[in-house]
Amino acid sequence: MEQMLTMQEAKALLRVSYRTIHRLVSNNIIPSVKVGRVIRIPQSGLKKFILNDTSGGSGNDYQQ
Hints:
GO molecular function: DNA binding
Organism: Paenibacillus sedimenti
Pfam families: HTH_17
InterPro entries: DNA-bd_dom_put_sf, HTH_17, SinI_DNA-bd
Distance between the termini: 33 Å
Mean pLDDT: 87
Radius of gyration: 11 Å
Strand content: 15-25%
Number of helices: 3
Helix content: 40-55%
Strand order of the largest sheet: 1-3-2
Protein name: Helix-turn-helix domain-containing protein
Shape: globular
Number of strands: 3
């Protein structure tokens, strides 16, 4: 089974605010799964986001 991260763990790995990680998840930029009342982020989805974001893109792939 795949490793699932909490929002706090993803926030710490990306070194962003809780608001930023919440916005990325809410806008489906980072995939997530809701388990009961909590959100979990698949580790592979977070890795994919990091690779796509740092692969020479402009960094403006999402809108605030």
